[in-house]
UniProtKB/TrEMBL annotation:
Belongs to the aldehyde dehydrogenase family. Pfam families: Aldedh (PF00171). It comes from Streptomyces populi. CDD domains: ALDH_CddD-AldA-like (cd07089). Residues 7-466 form the Aldehyde dehydrogenase domain. This is Aldehyde dehydrogenase. The keyword Oxidoreductase applies.
Amino acid sequence: MAPDHGFYEVRNPATEQVVGLAPEASRAQVHAAAAAAREAFGPWSRTPAEERAAVLARAADVVRRNLVPYAGLAQAESGATTGTARGMQVGVGMARFRRYARPEPVETALPPQINEAGPFGPAAVMGALAVRRPVGVVTCITSYNNPWANPAGKIAPALAMGNTVVVKPAPQDPLSVYRMAEALEAAGVPPGVVNVVGGSTPESGEAAVDSPDVDMVSFTGSTAVGQRIAEVCGRGMKRQLMELGGKGAAIVFDDADLASAVSGIGTTFSFYSGQICTAPTRVLVQRGVHDELVRQLAAYAGHLKVGDPREPGTVVGPVISAAHRDRVESYVELGRKEGARIVTGGERPPLPTGFYVAPTLLADCTPDMRVVREEIFGPVVVVLPFDDEEEAIALADDSDYGLIDYVWSGDVARAFRVARRLRAGGVGVNTVGRNMEAPFGGFKKSGVGRDVGSYALHAYSETQAIVWPG
């Protein structure tokens, strides 16, 4: 179907050249897509779970066969390095389809309950089942920082549970999501089960949220947009799964392995060029090792090659757009005005094209600074000192966000003690690694709900109770 509003250009953030054209759907077309998903929901939800799983497995096979061209497109529209595009974008997307091609039980037997005779009937032994049922039509609004893993992490568990989906990809890099939809179609997903609606303006996203045919919205993006979506969902009593902003605190005690801490924190400078909500962007370091950690982080940043993500050895590619580069740079300048010391970075890399930001380290920061409190979403790290454990916890929790925090300490008992007190959905102890079966989501303004692993299957389902006399 031709888009009512034509097409818009998708540009490569490294070369600034046009990668391709993406459709600009109208509000009416988005609502029509949701209506198609509603019509397809009944048959798909009644399809045996094993058959739905087989479709996801075949989709993973299609992605595997096309990994290199898919990664090339993802790299072109997102600016990811070659290794990131192949391994962390397309590779993780494929793995998520494979993960949810494994059916799990949806029924849980509850212990029998003995009911005494009363106004509701004679004495009886009541049996019960808790059964997970699909929610219905799910709108999936995805983020630009990973055009494969993020959409696959929504679509795969939603389909596995028997839902149908309307997918609204990020406007900056939507083309990969259309390839994903083609892979699902080739794998045998019936018409109407997966519907992709694109657009560069808020119109299509708003329509995908407020359609009366939509039962649930799964959103990854900024807290501000998430709050507006939640208002619409509240009026319609639509279910929500929100993975929003982050300002992860990395607590580094004076007995920590500094090399490990520097390597983990340094991923903020490189991984997706800092465009990741889980990044340890606030470094809280005990005074005894403060100066040494700052020195090592600055040296780490200085060794990272910034440039064309297609070139071997490039570690830091561009941010997604000129507008976002300007936003990140404005935060660095704000930090300077607030009194932070720019230890390294702070100047635009001298490259002929592309939207690049140098890895930047800000020291001498205080908790009230905006660069400390607000999500920058770029390769920028701020450092604050602390004296003792209590102060570290207070500083870490002094945030509107609570997605993932980190603790580095040679005393594992202390690290776990601190982790239990942090108001964050996840805590990494001496690592920035992830367990992909562990629940993922945030406290406070970092989101609502949990996904990943079996938790995603719960997120995309409703629980029904079935009760009978024994």
